[in-house]
Amino acid sequence: MNQNENLMDKIVSLCKRRGFVFPGSEIYGGLANSWDYGPLGAELKNNIKQLWWQRFVHRRGDMVGIDAALIMNPKVWEASGHLKNFSDPLVECKKCHNRYRADKMPAVCENCQGKDFTMAKQFNLMFKTFIGPAEEQTNIAYFRPETAQAMFVQFKNVLDTSRKTIPFGIAQMGKAFRNEITPGNFIFRTREFEQMEIEYFIPVPKEDGDWQKYFENWRIEMLQWMKEIGLSLDHVHELEVSDKERAHYSKRTIDFEYDFPFGKDELYGLAYRTNFDLSNHQKASGQNLEYTDPQTNEKYIPHVIEPTWGVDRSVLAVLCESYREDADRVYLSLPAKLAPYKVAVFPLLANKPQLVEKARSIYQDLQKHFMVAWDDRGNVGKRYYSQDEIGTPFCITVDFDTLENGTVTVRDRDTKDQPRVKIEELVNYLNKKINY
Ligand code: GAP
């Protein structure tokens, strides 16, 4: 086993051991490739989503957010082309009938070592369900395979109520479902996952450079986001997706690939969707989805640049990037703003009531500002080890000097430095460090 595969195993094991990610339905023997976020994983994932929303919705005047239903009218998927085109090529081992995605298949069957496969046939990835009690053709519906479509379908309502002018964007984050042929690599490829997407509406390009300017802006925005969540850009690679490989709606796509332990693979994407979706929805619904330029009164169907982020792949990349081992410890060097707990508070000795009382009062005060852990088990060294492993950036110890001079030690996870800080300055001190 090479070192990188080993790293993946270590991350999966740490996630289970410390409550980041558990195998789904585990007490019933699990459900293949389904994963549940535990207490710390839910915090990490939420911190990523909140940071994204703040950065791309709250801090920009040209963005608004929506939160749409997972199941939409099936006509949406007809018009968007998903029912016809959203498929992967599937091959089957002729001996044991194991199935593979043709573009990712091994040379020999992983199950029976057979070398004889069927010809590739297209397999639609849409997740089907029925609305209401009767399982009839007319009641078929689909779980959305991308969050994007609601932003197109609600374009007119958003426009009319928000009074945004082009260029502007609609953002959404939430679950998407795909009946993947070969899910795998932990939370990298699953059948149920979360996306954070933006549809950025731009004027009809008069010449090529017009849309490329917006595309380039979003490319830079995406790279800056990756830096903000602590990814080294040395581990990120941009792939210009070829005409043949591009999704049916896209005129240009860049995949941002990340060096995961199992190899380089897609983390995020950026696509120029032209006016493909809005035009198709206008045609299929019979509703006018045009925009009227308030200055010129020109009417047109806007074009769209779509940056898209996978939430679960963000979690995985952040974990891979921050996993560290040194001589005496394992630690997650998470950016402080993403860490599940920002700070932990310990009394030096659990059997000294004065220390415990003081530590408790600091813990309760800090809880008004941060997510705080409490630990009074074992010795301080073990508590540091335990917090390091879950990426807590700061540990506060209340010792006998605290009772004398009102200061505590604040131990830094990465440097192990332990400056003394006055209790009344703790909130400011930590705020500065966390939101650097
Ligand atoms: N609206 C465009 C769209 O959905 P995509 O490249 O198919 O584009 C966007 O998906 C992102 O969603 C990917 O870059 C990836 O981060 C994430 N993603 C896609 N399929 C996934 C899966 N099966 N499991 C986990 N994440 C997935």
Question: Could you list some keywords that capture this structure?
Answer:
436 residues, alpha+beta, 7-stranded mixed β-sheet, 5-stranded mixed β-sheet, globular, binds glycyl-adenosine-5'-phosphate
Major sheet: order of its strands? Answer: 3-10-11-17-14-13-12
How would you characterize the largest beta sheet? 7 strands, mixed
| Small molecules held by this entry | glycyl-adenosine-5'-phosphate
Residue runs with pLDDT of under 50 for 5 or more positions: none
Estimated radius of gyration: 25 Å
Category by helix and strand content: alpha+beta
Classify the beta-strand content into a percent band: 25-35%
State the helical fraction.
Answer: 25-40%
What does the model show?
With 436 residues, the protein is of the alpha+beta class. 33% of the residues lie in helices and 28% in strands. β5 and β6 form a beta hairpin. The longest helix has 21 residues. The model has no long low-confidence stretch (mean pLDDT 96). Glycyl-adenosine-5'-phosphate binds next to β11, β14, β17 and α9.
Short description:
The chain is an alpha+beta fold and 436 residues long. 33% of the residues lie in helices and 28% in strands. Helix 2 packs across helix 9.
Any chance you could write out the topology, listing elements then pairs?
Blueprint: H1 3-18, E1 21-23, E2 35-37, H2 39-58, E3 63-65, E4 71-72, H3 74-79, H4 82-85, E5 87-92, E6 99-101, E7 121-124, E8 127-130, E9 140-143, H5 148-153, H6 155-162, E10 168-177, E11 192-202, H7 208-228, E12 236-240, E13 252-260, E14 263-274, H8 276-285, E15 291-292, E16 299-300, E17 303-310, H9 311-322, E18 323-326, E19 329-332, E20 343-347, H10 353-367, E21 372-374, H11 380-389, E22 394-398, H12 400-405, E23 407-412, E24 420-422, H13 426-434
Helix pairs in contact: 2-9
The structure holds glycyl-adenosine-5'-phosphate.
